[in-house]
Amino acid sequence: MSEPETQTELSPNPQGKVEAHAHWLELPSAEAIGQIGTYVVVFAVMAVLFALTSYMTSSYHAAQFTEATNHFAAGNRLAAEGEDAAAIEHYRTALALQPTNSDYRMQMALALLRAGRLDESQTHLQELLQADPTNGLANLAMARIANQYSNLADANIYYHRAIYGLWPTDGQSNRLQARLELVDLLARNDQKSQLLSELMSLQEEMPPDAALKRRMAGLFLTAGSPAHAQELYQEMARADRRDAQAYAGLGESEFQLGNYAAAQRAYQTALRLNPDNELASRHLEVSKNALALDPQLAGLGSSERYLRSRRLVVLALAQLDLCVGSQDGSANPAIESLRQAAQERIAERIRGLVPEETIETNMSLTAGLWQTRQDLCPQAAPSEEAVALILGRLEQSSQ
């Protein structure tokens, strides 16, 4: 059997060498070589142009970044010097160059807020909060804007978001500042119930700071919680026996609690340390009067309680007569009926054991006289404070 034919024949050439006859051994033409060279050149040029464009773009962005950074730094320097109007222009330029930079936008918003340009500031802050609703500083700034617009509801919301929001640095001090601003706002707007709630939360977080403790104690008095104020003032007085303000505050706390004897002692100490405290001096006298008049004090017998209740009727009637005389309202039948009832109680003389209902009737009559006097003459004289204080305690105890 013969060998199969191969696709390539080998034959010796004149020089004795083997020659291969195959089409793939043919060399490319000059035209093809020229086309390849053209492609190489084009690709090389494109690569150079791409590299050049990338370099120029990178250089442009680097220049923008540097310029924005310089404007931001200039804005910060001016803001630190209180030149917010000039700082705003630098922040605006920095933000135009780097519109996605949240730090630039935040400082722009804060400068606008300080400059009183509230609507512009609010626009930037809202954009920041859309990107990050937990931004503590942005929420605090929004709360301050709402505060300036006297929008208590919105301010309340934003202050709470700031308190519970995220702070990159100094979170504890910033949250404390937000809560302090909130309690001041509530105190100014006489929101006593919420104020007390916020103060209780604040007390749990309060750092050991004497000035803050003093401020808190005063706010507890404003919120109508003298017991909490009493505790703080006692701590301050124990820490410094020469702290006149602490003793004055302690006296006020005891005064509001109806602890007149304790209030006297605290006020006397405060006045010994600072004789110029006019409020302490006035409330010391009121405490003395209340201590001598209040039939609700513990340890009093029925006769003494009756005499005190009768004395209150006398004082309340005298004040009503003084008020009616100035108002020319003596012809009012309701007032005349009330006055007549008071005069009958004053004329009554009871000896021995006094029924409890008699004392209660006197106190109720005193309250009626006092309320009528308050309706006609709202401005109370300093001499009337003891009666008002006793009746206030009576009203609280009946609730």
End-to-end C-alpha gap: 130 Å
Order of helices and strands: EEHHHHHHHHHHHHHHHHH
> Average pLDDT across residues?
85
- Poorly predicted runs are 1-11
Per DSSP E runs of 2 or more residues, the count of β-strands stands at: 2
The largest sheet has its strands arranged as 1-2
SS-derived structural category: mainly alpha
**Computed CA radius of gyration, to the nearest angstrom:** 44 Å
Count of runs of 4 or more consecutive helical residues? 17
Helix content: over 70%
Shape descriptor reads: elongated
In terms of DSSP E residues, the strand content is under 5%
Structural features, described:
The protein is mainly α. Among the domains are: 208-293, Serine Threonine Protein Phosphatase 5, Tetratricopeptide repeat (Alpha Horseshoe), CATH 1.25.40.10; 299-399, no CATH class. Helix content is 74%, strand content 1%. Helix 3 (102-114) packs antiparallel against helix 4, helix 5 packs antiparallel against helix 6 (152-163) and helix 15 packs antiparallel against helix 16. The radius of gyration is 44 Å and the shape is elongated. It starts with 10 loop residues before the first strand and ends with a helix. Mean pLDDT is 85; it is low at 1-11.
Which features would summarize this protein structure in a list?
single chain, 399 residues, mainly alpha, Serine Threonine Protein Phosphatase 5, Tetratricopeptide repeat, 17 helices, 74% helix, disordered N terminus
How is the topology of this model organized?
Layout: E1 11-12, E2 18-19, H1 30-80, H2 84-97, H3 102-114, H4 118-131, H5 136-148, H6 152-163, H7 171-188, H8 192-205, H9 210-222, H10 226-239, H11 244-257, H12 260-273, H13 278-293, H14 302-327, H15 333-347, H16 356-376, H17 385-398
Antiparallel strand pairs: 1-2
